[in-house]
Design brief:
This protein has a single domain, classed as Archaeosine Trna-guanine Transglycosylase, Chain: A, domain 4, CATH 2.30.130. It has 117 residues and is an alpha+beta fold.
Length: 117
């Protein structure tokens, strides 16, 4: 039963059902298809709020390189596919997502794209 926390930047999109995926660094037990997902904002604070409860319907391995390359399930994405991934993630375009990753989580990045219903 993975719990995913979202910053204020994304919490409204998640709560309204606009954002239906998240790119996360892999951790101890990976998310798998059909896992129950609990989506929150403010976890670990007194303002913690559950945004949604849902199920995972797809998971893909993702690699984002420091040279802007993106590999999804062992396939290199085109520029158009990178932009689609970024907009599905809640960004305006891939350039914005790449800057966010570079400054926030560090590159290169390996993790999962987790999609829910």
């Amino acid at each position: 039963m993975p719990s995913l926390n979202f910053t204020a930047r994304f919490s409204n999109q998640v709560e309204r059902g606009i954002k239906k995926q998240s790119i996360r660094r892999s951790w101890g037990v990976p998310v798998v298809i059909d896992d129950a997902l609990y989506l929150f904002s403010g976890m670990g604070t007194y303002t913690c709020k559950r945004l949604r409860s849902t199920r995972c319907y797809d998971v893909a391995d993702v690699f984002i390189g420091s040279n802007t390359s993106v590999i999804l399930n062992n396939r290199v994405l085109t520029d158009g596919e990178k932009n689609e991934l970024a907009t599905d993630e809640g960004f305006d375009d891939f350039k914005q997502m790449f800057r966010f990753c570079k400054q926030g989580v560090g590159l290169p990045f390996e993790g999962q794209v987790i999609k829910w219903l």
